[in-house]
Amino acid sequence: MRIKSETYSWQAIIELGMKYPLKFIIGTILAIIKSEERTM
Q1: Is this prediction's pTM over 0.85?
Q2: Looking at the record's lineage, which domain of life comes first (predicted)?
């Protein structure tokens, strides 16, 4: 389940990357990393 959610998140980031600037992608990735750290 967790692997699928991570894969879906990466796909969403890639799709957003085609529409939004790289800064937005970097911010999203950092947010995901922080959320994972909180979960762990």
Answers
A1: no
A2: Bacteria
Q: Which two tokens stand for residue 16?
A: 């957003």
Please provide the DSSP assignment of 6-20 as one string. HHHHHHHHHHHHHHS
CB contact burial 6-38 (16+ within 10 A = b; e otherwise): eeeeeeebeeeeeeeeeeeeeebeeeeeeeeee
Q: Which residue has the tokens 């692997």?
A: 3
Helices and strands, counts by H and E, the chain: 2, 0
